[in-house]
Amino acid sequence: MSRKTKIITSQVMMPNQTNPNGNVHGGDIMKMMDSTAYAAARKYSGTNVVTARVDELEFHLPIMIGDLVICTAKIVYVGSSSMEIFVTVDVDELDNDRDPQRALSAFFTMVALDRNARPTHVPPMVLETPEEQTAFEEGKRRHEMYKERKKQRAQSKSNEVKIVI
After folding, report:
1. Pseudo-torsion of CA 43, 5, 32, 138, nearest 10°?
2. What is residue 33's three-state secondary structure?
3. What pTM did the predictor assign?
4. What confidence category does residue 34 fall into, taking pLDDT thresholds of 50, 70 and 90?
């Protein structure tokens, strides 16, 4: 059985989500991205999940009042308890005929939790296409690099000299 690995949400941006110029607050978009990543990870894992990390967010286009924001979350890598989700945000200006355009994207890492809020195993990912295999391998490399950076930070903290006065 192949598990669902993709979730799409959309929302029209309203005045309460914007600044006085009509630009949507970045925090509102980040929350939408996080919620969509959550839904994808929860659907895939069948358990509660929490956000562990968000990689760089870079806005390429402004998002304005009245725009339809389409948020797509796709599981690209699965570890033992963590999942990496690639989240894209496309903007559809509903008052013109242009195709939706990419506003931003980011990788979210979610961790599956059991009923005691402890990390729990998630099912292995079934890779069906060469594109999925490539995305999985890239996600695995990012995961391993993050673990190495985390290990180095822990080592540098243990090497710090503490002065007690």
Report:
1. 130
2. helix
3. 0.89
4. very high
